[in-house]
Design brief:
With 180 residues, this protein is mainly alpha-helical. It contains five helices and three strands; from the N terminus they run ββαααβαα. The longest helix has 30 residues. The chain is globular.
Length: 180
């Protein structure tokens, strides 16, 4: 496992504001490291034919659980600090937050079912197998291609049609890999 940082992007002069294209959210890449150095990566690619509203709902659904949990702990402590009974404060927070989570989950069900998710896990204690290295390389290559295309589009080096071609190709490749 290599921990060497390689710069992926070159800096280019900022284009004129008229040339900057709005790039849609193509998905997300998350990496986590466990206690013993195991690195887990998850790449999710939204379908290119999805609308901005669908992608916003999927992002809101993805972020809702951790943000609402953290916010509810802070709110619960604050409510208890001002004298509210702890059980009543917890019930009130659940009554407010659970319906929102359920609504987000139901509304984003369509795009979440079409989102392609690839994952990779590499051990920090032992040598990786060739299959694990290949899976990680494939995941990194797809993520870098999508990020590079998004940056090029934002900087005006590429147009939106070029970004969409990369997005469609990455989605089709991820779909083929996930089907194996």
């Amino acid at each position: 496992m290599s921990l060497i940082h390689r710069p992926r992007f070159t800096t280019a002069p900022a284009p004129a504001p008229a040339a900057v294209a709005r790039v849609p959210r193509w998905g997300h890449l998350s990496r986590s490291v466990s206690h013993y150095g195991t690195v887990a990566c998850v790449l999710a690619i939204y379908p290119p034919d999805s609308s901005d509203a669908e992608r916003r709902l999927a992002e809101a659904n993805r972020l809702y659980a951790p943000l609402s949990f953290g916010g509810s702990v802070v709110a619960w402590v604050a409510l208890c600090a001002v004298g509210a009974p702890p059980l009543l404060a917890a019930i009130a927070l659940a009554v407010v937050l659970l319906p929102v989570g359920i609504l987000l989950s139901r509304r984003s069900r369509g795009i979440r079912s079409r989102t392609i998710t690839l994952s990779s896990s590499r051990s920090g204690l032992g040598d990786d197998t060739a299959d694990e290295r290949a899976r990680q390389c494939r995941l990194d290559t797809l993520a870098e291609a999508l990020e590079d295309a998004a940056v090029a589009c934002r900087q005006g080096v590429s147009d939106r049609a070029g970004f969409d071609r990369v997005w469609r190709a990455a989605y089709a490749h991820a779909l083929a890999v996930a089907a194996r």
